[in-house]
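[Automated response] Your request has been received and processed.

Submitted sequence:
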Amino acid sequence: MANITFSSPAMKKDITVYAVAGDRRSLLAVAQENQVPIHYECQDGECGSCAVQVLPLSGKGPKGVHLTEKEKTVLLLSGKVSKEELARLEVTDVAPEWRLACQYMLLDDDILVKF
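Generated structure:
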C-alpha cells in the first residue's frame, strides 16, 4: 500500500489516500476516484495539463521510475525538466520531481503530490 497526499491551493486541506502499488492505475485515476481536482485535458500524456510535482515522503529519495517518451517530450517542452537534467536522471535511474499524472504509475512508496 502507498499513502498519497495531494496538496494544492485549489483544495481547502490536503487529502491523503491509500492506493495499491502496481495495480496499473495512473496517479490521475486515483485522484479522480477520490475527487482530487487535478486539472487534465487529454489523459494521454500529450497536452501536459496534468503536470504535478511528486515528492517522496520516505526520506530515501525518489525511486527509479522510467518516463514514457510522451512524458519526456512534454516535460521538456513545458520547461519542467531540462535536457541536461533528463540525461542525468536517465543515467542515475532516478525519477524527476515533475511528472504527468496521467502517465505516472504508482509504486509502493509514500508520496506528496503538489499541483
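Summary generated for your ticket: The longest strand covers residues 2-7. The chain has one domain: 2-114.
If you did not submit this request, please reply to this message.
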